[in-house]
Write a structure and sequence with these properties.
Elements (H helix, E strand, L loop, with lengths): L9 H10 L10 E6 L4 H14 L3 E8 L8 H10 L3 E6 L7 E8 L2 E10 L22 E5 L10 H13 L14 E7 L11 E11 L7 E6 L4 E9 L3 H7 L14 E3 L5 E3 L29 H6 L21
Parallel strand pairs: 1-2, 1-3, 6-7
Antiparallel strand pairs: 3-4, 4-5, 5-10, 7-8, 8-9, 8-10, 11-12
């Protein structure tokens, strides 16, 4: 459970009120940190991720003696001080070279952690691509390729998918401009290698280009803009049951009110249901057919003549005059 702090002064009460959870949360901000030992490759990758996340990112360049899996108190302090629920920590050591640690926080506490190692041979930074870059503040399209991400059981790859989605999805928007869809980030994971090692996660960033096609729909092309990173998964720390349940709780009033007999399908179309009263089919006006008329040789009795109306109601000819029913 989350720790409850009782304010003692009016100032502390106002500060705690600002930190309370909101019905509609703000866009999550990422804090990028480096450890006491950090390679130049990790620093370049941190700079590239900072460029992709701007303006919702804060980067610290000073060294920090932090060990996320041993002691997370420093990370929790930075998260509360800078109001950032997402942290990315870069470090380098002989045992864990070119390491990136992705951290999610909730309520000022560390929720879960994912550690990945960058493959140095295949890594390319943003500056190594000569193509045009996307504008700042764009909401990217995210795609995940591979059966590892769709596993029904929780594993390292489903955790990576959840964390990467939180890091790169950006803010919520009701309306999307097609011209703003210029960035796509793809995460791909293949099958297990022959030596039994788990598959790598390949991160690719593409710039979406729309060109004239002579038709109403433009021709869409993609061009790699960087960075290009291959990850190998290291240590992980999943969220505790009580803390995860508290983080997934929805506040009251956010769900839309349900209206009676009105539903919304997967596409977003409204479907209504109308209830009609009981219908009396005995008073239903049917269409008259020629096959039911009498012939010239048929005789009519007095009772039949009384039942036949001479002028049928509501029937008119082409000239607007009332038709008279002929009795043979």
């Amino acid at each position: 459970m989350l720790r409850q702090i009782k304010p003692k002064t009016a100032r502390s009460k106002r500060e705690l009120a600002k930190r309370e959870s909101l019905a509609h949360e703000n866009t999550k901000t990422v804090l990028l940190l480096r450890g006491s030992s950090c390679s130049s490759l990790v620093q370049d990758i941190l700079a590239d991720i900072n460029a992709l996340k701007r303006p919702f990112s804060v980067r610290f360049t000073k060294k920090n003696e932090i060990h996320p899996f041993e002691d997370a108190s420093s990370l929790e302090f930075f998260s509360q001080k800078n109001d950032t629920s997402l942290l990315l920590f870069g470090s380098h050591s002989k045992k864990r070279p070119h390491c990136l640690t992705w951290i999610r926080c909730f309520g000022g506490q560390v929720l879960d952690i994912l550690e990945v190692n960058i493959v140095k041979d295949t890594a390319r930074t943003l500056s190594q691509f000569q193509s045009e870059k996307c504008k700042v503040g764009l909401k990217p399209l995210l795609s995940f390729s591979g059966t590892q991400f769709e596993s029904p059981e929780t594993n390292h790859y489903t955790l990576a998918k959840s964390i990467f989605t939180d890091f790169f999805r950006g803010g919520e928007s009701l309306n999307v401009d097609v011209e703003g869809l210029q960035l796509m980030i793809n995460f791909a994971a293949g099958e297990d290698a022959q030596d039994g090692s788990p598959p790598k996660i390949q991160m690719r960033c593409w710039r979406i280009i729309t060109r004239r096609s002579g038709q109403r729909v433009p021709r869409v092309e993609v061009e790699e803009m960087g960075p290009r990173i291959d990850f190998t998964i290291g240590r992980t720390k999943e969220a505790e049951g009580s803390l995860w349940k508290e983080a997934m709780k929805k506040p009251k009033g956010t769900d839309p009110k349900t209206k009676k007999n009105i539903e919304t399908d997967l596409v977003g179309d409204k479907i209504g249901r109308i209830h009609l009263g009981k219908q009396d089919l005995t008073e239903l006006q049917t269409r008259k057919m020629k096959g039911l008329k009498r012939g010239r040789g048929d005789t009519i009795t007095k009772e039949m003549a009384d039942n036949v109306s001479i002028i049928s109601e509501g029937e008119t000819d082409a000239g607007g005059e009332t038709k008279r029913q002929r009795i043979a």
